[in-house]
Amino acid sequence: MAVAPPNDISGHAPADPLAAGDHPAPDPNARERPAPRYDRIAVIVNPAAGQDRPILGILNRAFHAAKVDWDVFVTKKAGDGQRYTRQAIEAGYPAVAVYGGDGTVGEVTSALVGTDVPLAIFPGGTANVMSVELGIPGDLEEACALVFNGAGRLRKIDVGQIGDQVFMLRVGIGFEAEMVEGADREKKDRFGTLAYALSALQALREPTMARYHLTLDGQLRETEGMTCIIANTGSLGRTNLTLASAISVSDGLLDVIVVRRSDLPSLLSVAASVLTGSGNPAPLQHWQAREITVQVEPQQSVTVDGEMVEVNPISVRVLPQALSVIVPVTADPVS
Questions:
Q1: Domain limits of the chain?
Q2: How confident is the model over 262-286, as pLDDT tens digits?
Q3: Architecture in CATH of 35-150
Q4: Residue 75: is it exposed, middle or buried by C-beta count within 10 angstroms (0-12/13-18/19+)?
Q5: What is the pTM of this model?
Q6: CATH number of the 165-321 domain
Q7: How confident is the model over 19-53, as pLDDT tens digits?
Q8: Beta-bridge partners for 155
Q9: Residues linked to residue 215 through DSSP beta bridges, in sequence order
């Protein structure tokens, strides 16, 4: 079967029907509504999250003053977040909150997808990418206040699915996975988000190039690069710092980005584009699709929301507006 040549969206190639920006934008009013005041909530806490602070004391002070009945569930191992969330749903809690990093948030999300129970995110990890994406304050007491003082609204967002696993952020193949793999817990505890930058420099010493065979909503694309990213959110964990401006967490689409070259000028071009928000540079290719399959030659490492996984084939799909999240009323719905 003939394979269509790859196209970028830098203005130098013919229009691609799957190129970012060619899909109609959804109606933002269809996915947002005011959040009720919750007087009872289950809070799932990961004590090993990246930030060292007296979490229980802060929660108790915030919820006691607001007369909110709250119960805490402390995770000890992988899978606890998902298990406690299911127990909370069965017990009839009207909302579930999670304190931790993006990994813990993802675990809780996997149990909430498809239910009417909303998620409150209390940022406590190293990067907190999803909370930055949604405008949730990093201050814990301010994040708690979204639950009970009328400062919150409910926003429907998309999630992705790879195999049986649900993800909120993205799937990284190649360089991104190598970067995550190199930033272990010890480095993150010691250096914070700088651990990822140090790991990236290490991975760039000998970057692995690969050929990606992409099936995007049934259409074939083929290209080469150092990394392939399937993104639900474009946020890089800092306000206004995003992989690409066209990426939205509420558009019913996933974004496929391939960094084609690993030479220094190309990477500086990508970095400058990310920092200035000036659009996609030539080293990037960017498509959007609802169902995606990736075959890689040679095989590369894969990460899902910052966790290393073994998956073959790499088949991903979007679950549109599958999760309700409590976000600030004042947060700009930019994605």
A1: 35-150, 165-321
A2: 555 655 565 555 555 555 555 678 9
A3: 3-Layer(aba) Sandwich (3.40)
A4: buried
A5: 0.81
A6: 2.60.200.40
A7: 776 665 555 454 577 777 899 999 999 998 876 77
A8: 32, 325
A9: 220, 293
